[in-house]
Write a structure and sequence with these properties.
Length: about 375
Amino acid sequence: MTQRGYGGPLRYVQGPGVTADLGRYLAPLGDKALVVIDGFFWDRLRPDLESALAAAGVAADFVRFGGESSDAEIERCVAAGRAASAASVVGIGGGKALDTAKITAFGIGARIVTVPTIASTDSPTSSLGVVYSPDGVYDRVVRCGRNPDVVLVDSDLIVKAPARFLAAGMGDALSTFYEARSNIESRSNNYIGDGYASTVGGYQIARACHEVLMRDGRAAYAAAKDGRLTPAVENIIEANTLLSGLGFENCGVSGAHGIHDALTVLEPTHHFLHGEKVAFGVLCLLVLENRPPAEFAEALSFCRDLGLPTTLADLGLQTVSAADLTRVGEAAMLPTNVIHSVPAKLSVRAIADAIATASLLASRPAPAP
Ligand SMILES: [Zn+2]
């Protein structure tokens, strides 16, 4: 009998200014907390938070995040958490700060609260944390065993970040439905516990993610570029954070992320955000799975309108050689790559040819409206 499983954070709260309520959410978890906060917010947020947490009866120690989710950084935060006898660990910042906070909490058996300051990663809601080397090379994924207790998403903070992050988050969220479908069709396991078949609910969340992107993505990008907070921006923050986060964890990733990971063997791609590379990976996945041309056209026009990369040249790979693409195909075919949930016969050549073809199709001029 196949078992199906679903998981997610206990609570998700989003809106302008919710960071000020942190104490109210933290107090029920215990009266001592460790707060791992991105350096950019050390002076901007910490002083107000210190007094707000004290007023809520929570004694908090603050650690300034060093910038990399590395073993050394995690050890430093674990030591600080132990010294503070922290009942909860709060992460405030981008994906790497949140991952460090989650793995720290796992290490000391504490509860987890995430406060993302950009809407461009799937870290805030998930039970997974990624570890990198001190100079930023991917090392491994840590399964933290539990999802965050509370996810606090302050849309005021997020709309103040450069709109490029929101667009990159949409590139990452664009992969959620297509990759969920790969996993359903290949009957692959999700990332809940040791892996289950996905639930109807998990798959419907991935579908809703896609619908919201197509409906509100362009209007949200225009508003966010101008620093405006509209219902479309709020919907996209939710799609990028809650829907994409639950969708990927409950259904699984596939070729868009697999090709993203493999492309990192080519140095020029290191200058792009995760979601930007995943957006191009989506186009490659649609070619690899030979989906209907209308699907490719929809994803292509969406990425173009958000300024996301759609060709190898857009990723700094205008001079890529056949040997380079073979190296990418080889990296993608490694057993540890997530591409193997693609419901198609895979080979180094099939992957290299899909990448080159996606770029070629996207290089043709946009059709007249
Ligand atoms: Zn991703």
